[in-house]
Amino acid sequence: MHIRMPIEVSATLLAAFTIFIGGASLNLPTWGIFLGWAAISLPGGPSHSSLSALGRTLPVGAVFALGTLWLQGFLASTAGPSIPAWAPGLAAILVMNPGMLLLGRIRALSLVPGMFVGFSTVLATHLGHFGPVPGSIVAAFLCGLGMNLLGLGFACAAKAMSPAQPPGQSRQGTSLTTASLATPGNCWGADTDASPTTPNTL
User: Fold this and answer.
1) C-alpha–C-alpha distance, residues 67 and 80, integer Å
2) How far apart are alpha carbons 105 and 96 in whole angstroms?
3) pTM for this one?
4) Are 111 and 200 in contact (CB under 8 A)?
5) Which partner from 61, 86, 105, 198 sits 20 to 30 angstroms from 168, CA to CA?
6) At what angle do helices 137-161 and 31-41 cross, to 10 degrees?
7) Region 89-116: what's the mean pLDDT?
8) Contact, 29 vs 128, CB < 8 A?
């Protein structure tokens, strides 16, 4: 008889494993794993469609974050001390962010929250001085995006370790929050192939 590992156990084991990723020398932003994991949970958990959608939008957001950081540095070095320190960052966001959102009108890139996860992870990695080369925007891009994508893998691993319960089975003694999530097509492991590529209104 197959014994199903509870999702609480598999998720906790995987979360604890992040302690050993990178180590102090690499200074990796392992919190980015959880952002990727959360992102794949929101459209219903790992499925072909959700993995494909996030596999496209996370890198797009990360690329726009890289462009924003580059443009900020370029404007700051060009303008010099004659403008406020916050002005280059503001200008870079005002230029880059609309372009990223416009791409969300393309059906294949319509999971706009995925772009924001990739974008914010790279920015936070850079601003928090994470990565093997703190201050390098390329290192921030590679580390941030890498952690997000690894989070998708962790979500798939959790699903494989804790297969979905047969329909109609309920778990006793769960909280209202857990019980409300434990329905087909959610982050607790039930498979769904409902397309998450419907355009999102922000």
Assistant:
1) 20
2) 16
3) 0.77
4) yes
5) 198
6) 50
7) 95
8) yes
Cα atoms found within 13 Å of the Cα of residue 119, Cβ hemisphere only: 19
Domain extent listing, the chain: 27-162
Q: Give the pLDDT band of residue 168 (cuts 50, 70, 90).
A: low
Res. 165 pLDDT band, cuts 50 70 90: low
Question: DSSP string spanning 158-177?
Answer: HHHHSPPPPTT---TT--HH
Extract the tokens encoding 85.
Answer: 């320190």
For the chain, give the number of residues: 202
pLDDT grade, residue 45 (50/70/90)?
confident
Read off the pLDDT band of 83 (50, 70, 90).
Answer: confident
Q: Nearest 5°: CA angle at 26, between 23 and 32?
A: 85
DSSP state of 146: H
